[in-house]
Structures are given as C-alpha cells and as structure tokens.
Amino acid sequence: MSDSTFDRYGRPAIAVVVLSMALLSVFSGYLRFEQQGVVALADSAVSVYIAGLMLWGLFREGFGTDRFRVLLYLGLVLWGSVDFLIGTDSTISLVILIGGALLLGRAAYQYAQRRQKPVYDR
C-alpha cells in the first residue's frame, strides 16, 4: 500500500484551501454586487465562474486535464475583458487578458499537435 504523506495530509489541505478561497470569492462577489449594484454584476459573475471552476476541478475533473485548463484560461480572458469593459482597466487586467489569450492559444496548438500524431503515439 503506497499511502504517502502527501496523499494523507497534502490533498485534504489543498482541498480546504481551494474550498475556502472559492467561498471567499463568492462572498466577495456578493458584497461587491450589494455595494456597487448592476455595475459589478459582470465582475461578480466572472469571480463566481472561476470559483465554481476551481471547485469542479477539485471535486470532479481534476486540475491536470486539458478541459479544465482551457476553461481556466477562458476565465482569465473573461476577467481581463470585463475589467476593460466596465472601465477598471489596469496593467494587471491587461496582463491577465493577454496571458489568458496566449495560454488559450498554446492549449489549442498543443491539441492540434496531438491530433496530428498517429493513434499509437498519443
């Protein structure tokens, strides 16, 4: 039986951290919506999307799958785009938007490369 220390203590600790960060994100989105009204709706929706995605990755899909990564990169692009659309753009928003777009392009390129390989090499 290979029960490592990481499997015994590390994974539950990571699960607690991800769960608490997701709950904090949802709560902060709710507070932003309460204070700023409809203006903060798009930003709150992106926060809830990323929090939900992290929970889905933790409990259902796993963080290492291509589908999770593509959805996460799409969330980064949405986050940067929303910041520019509502007028709270900054250098960080630009970095998130460009970084998410580059990572999305990289994931698409890797998918295309894998599709060109013969079945026995995949």
Automatic annotation (TrEMBL):
Keywords: Membrane, Transmembrane, Transmembrane helix. The keyword Transmembrane applies. The chain crosses the membrane at residues 12-31, 37-58, 70-86, 92-112. It comes from the Archaea. The keyword Membrane applies. This is Uncharacterized protein. The lineage of its organism: Archaea, Methanobacteriati, Methanobacteriota, Stenosarchaea group, Halobacteria.
